Amino acid sequence: MSAAVRVALDAMGGDNAPGPIVQGAVEAAREYDIGVYLVGLEDAIRAELARYDIQGLDLPIIHTDEVIEMDEHPASAVRRKKNASMILALQQVRDGKALGAVSAGNSGAMMAASLFTLGRISGVDRPALGGLFPTRDNICLVIDIGANTDCKPEYLLQFALMGSIYIERLFSVPSPRIALLANGEEETKGNEQVQQAHQLLKANAATLDLNFIGNVEGRDIPAGAADVVVCDGFVGNVVLKLSEGLAETLLVILRAQMTSSLPSKLAAAVLRPGLRKVMKRLDYAEYGGVPLLGVKGSAIISHGRSNARAIKNALRVARQTAETNVAGAIAEDLAKLQPQSTNP
After folding, report:
1. From CA 49, how far away is CA 205, in angstroms rounded?
2. To bridge 37 with a disulfide, which of 8, 32, 41, 226 should be the other Cys (CB 3.0-4.6 Å)?
3. Between these two residues, 26 and 341, which has the higher pLDDT value?
4. Higher local confidence (pLDDT), 92 or 276
5. Phi (first) and psi of residue 110, to 5 degrees
6. Residue 278 CB: number of other CB atoms within 10 A?
7. Do residues 225 and 182 make contact, with C-beta atoms less than 8 angstroms apart?
8. How far is CA 19 from CA 34, 47, 111, 118, in A?
9. Partners of 6 in the beta sheet?
10. pLDDT (tens digit, 9 = 90+) per residue, 26-62?
11. Residues 193, 197, 201, CA angle at the centre, nearest 5°?
12. Helix (H) or strand (E) holding 166
């Protein structure tokens, strides 16, 4: 298989690595017909591969004995551990050997390593993380969900453009509806940062061909009022963690009610197929990971507790992000904003 259809995977990244990480790579190679560089401790990776029938699958191993642990300081670890598994995975992308890189390891380190190894796209002040949220009918991309806690209005304008390109290219959403997250729909709502960002989006929407629909509130995200919702990383991370906790709590309550009595168990048996579909839509593993948008390449950050299905889907997303040329489209469109950009 050609190296051009390989994705690099940090096999040592994740709370339970390398077991479910390697399993996800095997499933992706089999189901999506892609090659996967498995980067990490060779003996540990081979021990996991021995559990599966991998005949005919393209799963080359890149050995390293350096791993960035979950509790390490991201920037310090990236500086010290030049041969860490996630860094070597990203180097495969930089060197043109892999379409993208995936890691479920230390997310801060993955962001720092992506910046250091791949570099920022020209015109991008701050790369951002885009998180996918299920809505009533489809999905919504919230950007940023944690990469940048303090943002200038110009950053939010760039986030809107990056998010629009990503959701349009990966999910075939024509003219995605872009909204700014605020505490009210009126353009005078929000703090100074949000109000200034609103004016920037209004002023540049036509030039950038953005379908900016104005402000939305938090409740509008699950309602599907917009395809892309823009906010700073502090607010976005609060939205993310609240949504995760709420979804888990609702599922626990639902399970408890479904098993509380014999009539409930009988009703649950009838409803089980539909409930499984609901649970599948709420499961983070369906989306695999979140893209770090604004770097020169495809870098996907997966949840630390990712199971094999999440890793399989993250590898698919990494490939799609590269093959739809998200980074190239961002660079092309941001060139129109050079006079507006600010330096970090």
Report:
1. 49
2. 8
3. 26
4. 92
5. -65, -40
6. 14
7. no
8. 19, 9, 23, 28
9. 35
10. 999 999 999 999 999 999 999 999 999 999 999 999 9
11. 175
12. helix 153-171
Q: Euclidean distance between the first and final Cα of the chain, in Å?
A: 42
Tens of pLDDT, residues 180-222 = 999 988 888 989 999 999 999 999 999 899 999 999 999 999 9
Bond preceding residue 291 cis, omega within 30 of 0: no
Name the pTM for this structure: 0.86
- Residue 66 per-residue DSSP state: B
> DSSP string of 287-321?
T--EEEETBSSEEEE--TT--HHHHHHHHHHHHHH
Structure tokens at 47: 């021990």
Residue 61 CA to residue 343 CA, distance in Å, equals 39
Closest CA to 166 of 214, 87, 230: 230
Question: Contact 19/74 with Cβ under 8 angstroms?
Answer: no
Percent of the chain with pLDDT over 70: 90
* Contacts for 300 with CB less than 8 Å, ≥ 6 apart: 100, 101, 102, 103, 288, 289, 290, 291, 292, 314, 317, 318, 321
Instruction: Retrieve residue 181's tokens.
Output: 């997250």
Other Cβ atoms closer than 10 A to 11: 37
- CB-neighbour burial class of residue 138 (10 A; exposed 0-12, middle 13-18, buried 19+): exposed
Q: For residues 120 and 114, what is the distance between their CA atoms, to the nearest angstrom?
A: 9
pLDDT tens digits for 110-125?
Answer: 999 999 999 999 989 9
Q: Given this model, what pLDDT does residue 213 score?
A: 96
DSSP assigned state of 120 = B
Q: Which two tokens stand for residue 123?
A: 């015109």
Give the burial class of 189: count Cβ atoms within 10 A of its Cβ; 0-12 exposed, 13-18 middle, 19 or more buried. middle
Counting residues of the chain whose pLDDT is more than 90, the rounded percentage is: 71
Please give the structure tokens belonging to residue 274: 């539909």
